[in-house]
From TrEMBL:
Top-level taxon of origin: Eukaryota
Keywords carried by this UniProt record: Membrane, Transmembrane, Transmembrane helix
Chain ranges passing through the membrane: 35-54, 66-99, 126-148, 168-188
Gene3D superfamilies: Rhodopsin 7-helix transmembrane proteins
The protein, known as: G protein-coupled receptor
Length: 221
């Protein structure tokens, strides 16, 4: 779900930076709610087959090699990797094109307008955040998507103890890297965006004041 939300947010940014008013009208909260609901319903319904093919074998919840596992690998490769990762990259590239077109148009109209420059700077930072997060998400996700089919297609091969240990270590490392993808958004935003850092610092100062300067005198007012 986290990756799908990233895709939807990237798609929303792509629509909001479009020069065409028809596409910009879809950048609204009601449309975002409908699109989010439809997307979540689709993935919830389409993944029901996992309840059927998964079972407990030797105390482990997994699937056995067969048709069900093949369907699972194909489904995961397409809907959990190719579609969201490819969609984020495509929307990111289109957003970059829109931002460049907007910047060129703004430079021609008014190169000295401070408010225009502020909007331009904000759009550039938003694009950087989207593109960096999408790029890292693809890298961290693809390595996982390569390892899982490899383990499936080589599961019937007799492997040495050393090879099994190496594959186990790679699997654990892949799991850690894949999990990091869902927790690096804050650090990416803080490192890449001065606007985000400024907003975060203001929010933290406000929170600290509320936590440490709220006494009986304040409650009386």
């Amino acid at each position: 779900m986290a990756l799908n939300c990233l895709l939807l947010s990237t798609f929303d940014r792509c629509l909001s930076t479009s020069r065409n008013a028809y596409w910009r009208q879809f950048c609204s909260i009601p449309f975002a709610k409908r699109l989010f609901t439809i997307t979540m319903l689709f993935f919830s319904i389409s993944s029901i087959f996992c309840v059927i093919i998964y079972d407990t074998y030797n105390g482990i919840c997994t699937t056995l090699p067969g048709l069900g596992t093949i369907i699972l690998v194909i489904y995961a490769s397409i809907f959990l990797s190719l579609v969201p990762h490819g969609g984020v990259l495509i929307c990111g590239i289109i957003t970059w094109i829109h931002v460049r077109q907007s910047r060129n148009r703004i430079d021609i109209i008014s190169a000295s307008d401070q408010s225009t420059r502020a909007v331009q700077r904000m759009q550039r930072q938003l694009f950087i955040l989207i593109f960096v997060q999408a790029f890292l998400g693809v890298i961290l996700g693809v390595q996982r998507d390569i390892l899982m089919p490899y383990r499936f297609f080589t599961s019937s091969i007799q492997k040495s103890v050393e090879r099994q240990q190496v594959e186990y270590i790679l699997l654990q490392l892949s799991t850690i890297l894949y999990t990091m993808k869902f927790g690096i958004s804050f650090y990416i935003h803080y490192a890449c965006s001065s606007m985000f850092r400024k907003t975060f610092q203001i929010s933290m100062k406000s929170l600290m004041k509320r936590c440490f300067h709220f006494g009986p005198h304040d409650r009386a007012h």
